[in-house]
Write a structure and sequence with these properties.
By secondary structure, the protein is an alpha/beta fold. The chain has one domain: Spore Coat Polysaccharide Biosynthesis Protein SpsA, Chain A, CATH 3.90.550. It has 6 helices and 10 strands. A hairpin with a 3-residue loop joins strand 7 and strand 8. The two termini are about 15 Å apart. The relative contact order is 0.18.
Length: about 200
């Protein structure tokens, strides 16, 4: 897995966003098989024991067959990632939560450490890839943001980018190579499987 996995964040909740339509993939991303595990199970394994708790945000009526992991359902349907963010933050017992999208199969916890160091008094900190591309779905959020998120949902402003302009957000500039995998399409998934295959034979 990515570097930085020696870090532990015992006062931070990890929230995995596992709801959504997965339109480009054409199937449920969280259930994609990666060898003996699903994508969601691989993410949980990377986070387990390193955070205060793990919460899985799922679509309404679509829980996953997982043991010993808390799952919370979106209250708003067809509201995109903001609905998952809202459900996860409302359920979190921590002031700060790490949000992870379920289509990001490898987590560099060194980035989490770096984000925590720049969070300060900000409401959230997110990576900005190559100084240009914001990546606010792998980010640190304060629990106090949930009323703002609910307000945006009710106003129909469903892009997470709207949130960045409503709160005290700060970007952490990192090379895009530090977040190399996002399984948005079937081609992305197949390329990642080939990467895993090569990795096992090295």
């Amino acid at each position: 897995m990515e570097s930085g996995n020696a870090f532990k964040f015992k006062n931070i909740t990890a929230i995995i966003l596992a709801g959504g339509q997965s339109r480009r993939m054409g199937r449920d991303k969280a259930s994609l098989p990666l060898g003996e595990q699903t994508l969601l199970e691989q993410l949980i394994e990377q986070l387990a024991g390193r955070f205060q708790e793990i919460i899985i945000s799922v679509s309404k009526g679509q829980p996953y067959p997982l043991n010993n992991v808390r799952q919370v359902e979106d209250r708003y349907e067809n509201a995109g990632p903001l609905a998952g963010l809202l459900a996860g933050l409302q359920a979190s017992s921590s002031d700060i939560s790490l949000v992870v999208p379920c289509d990001q199969p490898e987590i560099d916890l060194g980035i989490v450490r770096d984000m925590l160091q720049v969070l300060g008094q900000h409401d959230l900190v997110y990576p900005r890839l190559d100084g240009q591309i914001p990546h606010p779905l792998f980010a640190l959020y304060r629990r106090s943001l949930w009323p703002v998120i609910e307000k945006l949902i009710n106003e129909g402003k469903l892009s997470v980018l709207h949130l960045l302009t409503e709160v005290k957000a700060v970007a952490l500039d990192i090379p895009a190579s530090r977040l190399p995998w996002h399984l948005n399409s079937l081609e992305d998934y197949q390329n990642y499987l080939q990467y895993l295959k090569r990795k096992r034979t090295e």
